Amino acid sequence: MSFLSEAATVAFRETGLQPLGIGMPFISKKWCSHGAADAGRRITFNAESLSLTLSGGETWYCPISARVVKTNLSDRKPTATLIKADGTAVNGDGLLFELFPGALQRLKRLYVRRLEAASPVNYPNKPADRPIRPVPRYFFIASSDVDEAVTGGWLHAGQDTGIAGELFFFDEQGHIIHPLMVASCFTVLGDAYAGLVKESAPNQLAHIVGLSPASFTVRMVKPDGTPYDGAFVNGKTDMIPAIGLFTVSAYTGSDAELKGELTRQPDTGATGAFPLERARHLHLGLDTFGRLGNRCALPALPSGATLTHDFFTVKALDTRTYLTGAPDRSPTGYVGSRLEPAPVVRLHEDLTILADGNALMQRLHSLFNGSSTESLVAAAEINPKFPLPSGTDIYWPSFPPPTGSGTPADDAPFPSDFKRQVLAASRAVVIDGSSPDVCLTLVGLPVDCAVRVYHRVFGSGVVLSRGDGAGGLANSVVVPTAGRTFNGQCVLRLANPLGLEPPFSFPPSPKLIFDMVVVQRSGRMRIFGNLELPVSTTPEAGSAAAADNVVATAAKQGVCRAGVLGLRRTIAPLPVITDLNSLLNAVVQLGGETPPRDAPRLPTMARRDLLAAAKRGPNWTAVLAGGAIGPAMHSAQSTLGAPGSQGGPETQYVGVFTQNAGLAYDVARMAFRRTTSFYDRIQQLNNGLWDEPAPNTPLDRSQSPDGTRGTIAGSVLQTIAPYCETPELALLKSVVEANIASIPRDWNALVDLVVSWIDGLNLAGLPSPLDAAGARLKTELRNRLNSLKDSDPAHESQRERLYTEVVRELSAACFGRRDAQWALEEAIKNARRFIYLETPGLSFTEAGAARPYSRNLKSLLAARISSHPGLKVVICVPKVPDYGKGYEQYRAKEVKDRFDLVLDLPSANVVSFHPVGFPGRPSRLESQVVIVDDEWAMVGSSSFRRRGLTFDGGSDLVWTDLERSDGAAPSIASFRKMLMAARLGITGDGFDSRRLMLEDVADVFHFIRETLRDGGLGRIEPLWNGRTDGVAYSEPTLDSNLVNPDGVEFQTLNALVFAALGSVPL
């Protein structure tokens, strides 16, 4: 035996478990300073608050070894969100105790060993070290006498805290635990493991446990931690409903493993107090582990074990409100919310996260490869001239696969004069006399390596940066020559690398200066800087464009050629906008029905959706994300230069894939709206092709997601400004608003009503082309609606589909939709621990006084942080907002507004950063991602600004996973960790300390802050204030209401604001 082993053996023999120190959950049987076992009856149990109080001048002893800090209402607010019995968070003077992570993990294992069955049938996938009963991680002594308390640091079990006050216990998720249950559990553990007990005399636990008769209770909570009143739940009796506390009814079933069972009450049919549609969305489950559903199994103790007080925390989740929010649909609420069909929440779905552009590319290939009965794709831009991965190997070095000739030279070392060899054999040539593009032919590269070139950009203030450049493979072989090690060749087309302005006149003797990245399939990477080649101005044809990928085969396509996205360069001033009709006329002008459809939009508005769907047989498959479809989508492994890609701007994509069920169908319907006009759509919907799939049934408790059924509850959301969905329908706005409370529920009656409204339109004096669009209403739409009237009972589902589509189109045309705004409002209200936000744009969401149709999410966020001081917010936003050429003032204004917004939030709770792709190159974000508490997630094309939630067109998918572990949805937690690792440059396995930090967002929060203090370490950048060293700064003066408009208020902007539209491409 070694000396160290022998010393450890002696130490454990003589001192028990003491050498393990803070890693052991040592407990005390003495909880206060009084010397008697009954504590002089100075301890009182408060059932209404689930707390203990101490009187008579006594002070609390530390019940379990823990770290301790003082808290107050000003500069020392609690660092964790701890929800008391009444639903409010701990937020005041006192002592906050937290178990060391190692001690908490050991305590969990002890709970499992002594208090739970080894392999519970009702929880078949539960890890062996994961308890079902709540385990205390925090406890808090509320007291105004903290000045008299210990100074802070570490307290051992049984050590005097120095104060009295009110004692609360909380689990890992911050939910309160019945204090007598904690005392009961500590009694069991102390009796079983004497070595855990630090202070055993006098044993006050027996007295504390006896402060109330034996109990078996549950506390039911909503997602925000506030009490649930127990409505529509069987298996309990009221105890204190105001705090969600109920006594569990005696179990009468045959399952010997159970001690109790809560079940959702049977529905009352289509109507009644608990209709089916409401009942199917109420889910119950333990917050510690399990799957939320129509029952919650409460496990019995193992044979021989007893707990005087047993207790569970049960979550009650209404997936409709939780996911899509609760817009006010009353007569005093926003009129648009009263008419629009609410987003459909699908249950028991399967979902695949696409965490980068390569994953998105692979799913697009699977969607459109092969024959289908219907295929649709919509994106800001569709450029299919880039390869898509066809298999599961979607990253370098597997993708792109080798395509050239010759033997790959991956194992050959780079010669010391490699740069000289390449420059001696390479050349740069102008492609076309009327184009600023340059063809760069690189020779002398390792065969089949990936090459990325970044041309140098000379910015304002003599600032050098790396341009977008181009990329490719050295997949052709040139004739070997003496003095050259490699013989691979790569031909690249660089877009305007010299930064020329029209009419593109080249300077004499131009030179191309660039950096080059070479990545071999073996993983070897080299970066070569400051390469220089003369540019020949004698035009030569460049390399042939890449072949179209399978996205080009989609039958229905939609784009958005918007200047604000940089996709339209010509400036064509619109007529003066003075009233609704002139605004509608502008909207019609900015659309185009020639395939690919460019859907109508307001001036400066964008449609940022990325939607793709295909149907084979009875099943749909679908993808939802944000941004354009093009070569920049190949963006994974950006620190290597996205090897194998065609290059372009640094871009990050995130999306979702779903198939064979309701969510895929809903994405297809959304793509249908983007790619097909309402006139054609309403006819085509009257077809079995668009029959809605049957709802999924829940998985059995032992089943796992299978690609069709799963544990996801989700909904597809739409954001669109008024007047943009079939703008001529907005001519009916006044009559629709006047009759909004009396819209018939019958399809034929709805057709008759809408046709009568159309017949009553006066089209005289309408400007062109709005007059032609109005005439189309009176002829084409009127006739098509009348032809669809049907009373055949066999066609009921098709009539319902048509009815919903007509009402939805009317509502969207007149009032728009702002589903993402309502969903985010609800998510922020429910946030307890953290919010992670990735967004293409960040700014205010409401200006001026509150309106029924708008929400000030910044103020809501600040209020939530104030009431829940443990809430952490992490914001990832591109350095340069996503505005196209000509919109530089828009960019500058948003940069200023977002800087002011973040600065106005509590810095102790909010950290923000800019993502970086290849070192030195800020990255764009195409998709918005919001994750709350690892339980709620949203991905799509909206953005966290007024423009992105009420003006621009967007589609999002919001979801939760009903599978829970440690208070979180494991699939959402995994998604969040994957994103954070990519943004922060964290690699390595689970034993990497930085990767371990990803488990707790509070740790990541501090890691980001420290990284920013060190300058970002090349992976992230601090929030930009709009100023650049060496460049004179001009305060942006553009009207915020034009830069970041609300769709409802856009019509009311004054003439001077509208005049600014004449200077930008629309």
Automatic annotation (TrEMBL):
- Positions of the UniProt region annotated as Disordered: 689-709
Name this polypeptide is given = PLD phosphodiesterase domain-containing protein
